[in-house]
Amino acid sequence: MLEKHNEEMTLQDILDLSYMGKVLNETLRMYPVVPNLKRKSTKTYNIPDTNLTIEKDQCIRISVLGIHYDEKIYPRPEVFDPERFSPENVEARHECSYLPFGLGLEQCIAKNFAQVVSRVCLVKLLSQFRVEPSKNTPRQIEYDPTRTVLYPKGSLPIHFVKREAFY
Ligand code: HEM
Questions:
Q1: Could you write out the DSSP letters of every residue in 107-139?
Q2: Taking a C-beta distance cutoff of 8 angstroms, is the pair 5, 13 a contact?
Q3: Nearest one of 88, 81, 85, 110 to 98, comparing CA atoms
Q4: Can you tell me which atom of ligand 1 is nearest the CA of 64?
Q5: 100 CB under 6 A from ligand 1?
Q6: Hey, what domains does the chain have and what are their CATH numbers?
Q7: Which residues are within 8 A (CB) of 121 and not within 5 positions of it... i.e. 6 or more apart?
Q8: How far apart are CA 26 and CA 20, in angstroms?
Q9: What's the gap in Å between 38 CA and the centre of ligand 1?
Q10: In this predicted model, what pLDDT tens digit does every residue of 37-63 receive, in sequence order?
Q11: pTM of this prediction exceeds 0.90
Q12: 54-61: long-range contacts (C-beta < 8 A, 24 or more apart)?
């Protein structure tokens, strides 16, 4: 892509990076920065097949992490698989199955902006460097319980290896 436009990127080029889009989506499925959402109930609701009732005006927390790791929605949820975000697979799921930016009136105001900027940063970074695990990179990430957002406990060391020539 960079070669095509002499190192320049257009918005359309960025949007055309469909595999990178799948990788970013799967990353936010496994590591949703905001792991739960807050809402206020607008009406009394009995949760089907339970004796639980959410009262009108009750504040509730929705576990994004819990939904993203529900194996009825994402089989083998601990496996990183960008193909979960192929157009057919996305189409087959309920829209509330994937909530890294929330949903509805309170959803992230910068959802589209964040997705474009993430791709631009990755293009810039990966055209210059390969990213590799080091011997100290944890294979299983532990989260810091003192943070409100999903944040690794301790450090997360990785190697950036300068590329000789990418294309
Ligand atoms: C990958 C990056 C990002 C993620 C995963 C993310 C995620 C979220 C989530 C989950 C919410 C709550 C949505 C809800 O309750 O339904 C939110 C709200 C919000 N986000 Fe983001 N966000 C990102 C980037 C950004 C950026 C770059 C900005 C600003 C430039 C931004 C501005 C906001 C604002 C202002 C709200 C509050 C919206 C409201 O309450 O009406 N976000 N974001």
A1: S-TTHHHHHHHHHHHHHHHHHHEEEEE-TTS-S
A2: yes
A3: 85
A4: 10
A5: yes
A6: 11-162 (1.10.630.10)
A7: none
A8: 10
A9: 13
A10: 999 999 999 999 999 999 999 999 999
A11: yes
A12: 61/36, 61/37
